[in-house]
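User: Study the shape:
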Amino acid sequence: MNAIKNITIGQTSRLHRPVGYTMLSNLINIVPFCLSIEAINIIFRAFSTKDAVLDTQRLWTIVGLLVVYLSVML
C-alpha cells in the first residue's frame, strides 16, 4: 500500500476513476469471448448427435453481433 501512496503522492483517490474504467473495459471485452464460445457450442451440438441440425439462424446472429462489436471496438 505504501508503494501506491508513493506513486500517487498520497492522493490515492485519484486512482478510483482509472481503475473503474479499466474494470469496465475488461468486463466489456469479455463479450466477444462469450459469443465465440457460444458459436463453437452451436457447431459442436450439431455434430454431437446424428439427428441434430445446425442452428444457422442463431449462428449468423452471433456472427453479426461479433462484426458489430468489432466495428465498435475499432
Q: What stands out?
A: The chain has a mean pLDDT of 87.
